[in-house]
Amino acid sequence: MKLLKRLIVQPPLIYRALFPEAVWRVRILGRKTAYLTFDDGPVPEATPRILEILEKYGVSATFFMVGDNVRRYPALFEAVKSAGHRVGNHTMHHLRGRKTSFRRYLRDVTEANEFVASDMFRPPHGLLSFRQARLIQKHYNMIMYDVVTRDYARYITPEEVVDNVRRYARNGSIIVFHDSEKSAETTVSALPAAIEWLLENGFELRVLPSA
User: Fold this and answer.
1) Per annotation, catalytic residue among 39, 108, 146, 151
2) Given the residues 85, 163, 178, 179, the one annotated as active site
3) Which residue from 104, 167, 169, 180 puts its CA 20 to 30 A from 150's CA?
4) Which residues contact 17 (CB under 8 A, 6 or more apart)?
5) Is residue 151 among the annotated active site residues?
6) Which helix (H) or strand (E) element contains residue 132?
7) Of 176, 175, 165, 158, residue with least CA distance to 201
8) How far is it, in rounded angstroms, from Cα 76 to Cα 42?
9) From the first residue on, what is the mean pLDDT of each consecutive set of 10 residues in the chain (211 residues)?
10) pTM of the full predicted structure?
11) Domains and CATH numbers, the chain
């Protein structure tokens, strides 16, 4: 069970090798850096509270947004951008690539980009077929992750989320949180302590760089 948890929190090299052109970790010489990212929003239950926390600590992040949520909450979308954060495409309806036909999945990505308008894409659940990935990467920078906090997990505590950051964050880590209704309370409770630990340990927290 501990090994399985570790493989979820920090994807193994064998899984990263399946999508070698995707960005799993950002290696930049110089100051130690990490990249906070938030998936599945924007939603009123989570996104405004996360923006307040990020503003409090003066750090920037990248939000991978579901197109249908942007359609429903355009003011939240604008608030994220106005605060200096970057946005990325997370499909229109949060589809699992391997459970969705090739044409439908690509159509969903394209539709989402009409609302999100980004050159970055992250597949929901980190899952898509090789064929889907090949075509998507012709049009987008595919951003994966180095640390999954598991803030979405039903029985995880905020303390365990923070512990995942402490254990696995390293220079260049792309760290996944969520700004979803399901994860809102856990994420909002854990995020301040996670940010404080990262800053105290010399990390600069930035938006993901352009390709």
Assistant:
1) 39
2) 178
3) 104
4) none
5) no
6) helix 130-136
7) 165
8) 6
9) 63 92 88 96 98 98 98 98 98 90 95 98 93 95 97 94 97 97 97 98 94 65
10) 0.95
11) 2-205 (3.20.20.370)
